[in-house]
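Note to self: keep these together.
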Amino acid sequence: MKPIGTYQTHQVFWFDYDQFQLEQLPTKNWVCLATSDIDPNDEKFEKFVRHSIDSKILEFKGHGKFGEKLHDLFDETMTQMEIVENHEPISVMTTWHNDETLADTFWDCFFATCLPETADLDNISIICTDLKGNDRTSELKKILDRFEGGWIPE
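Structure:
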C-alpha cells in the first residue's frame, strides 16, 4: 500500500487493486473507499470482501458507476457468510455513492457515523482503491489539500 496523507488523525493509503496483495490491508480499524467504473461481479472482488471482513473493516463505501453494485455485492457476501457459513455476526456498514463526486465520498470516510462501539476513533485508517486499476493517489492528495484548506461538501 502507498501512503497518501493524513487528515483528522486518519491515515490514508492507496491499495493497488491490480497488484491485489491482500496481506497489505490493515488487520483492524479501517474504512474502505472503493470506486469502480467496471462491473465488479467476479471472484476477485468476493475475495477482497471476505478478506476485508476477516481484517475487521469498519465501513465500506462503493463509489462510481458501479458504486451501488459494489455495496450490494459486499452485503450479499456478508449475508452468505452469516447465514450459510455460520460466521459470527458481521457489523460492517456499507453505502453507495453513484452520483457523488470522489471528493464528496472521500469526505464521508472521515466522518463515518455508523461505526461499531469497538472502533478506535483516533486510529482509523482509510484505504482507497479503484477496481479498474487507475492510480488515483495524486487526485486524492489534491482533495486532502482542499480538506486542509477548509473545503466541505455542499
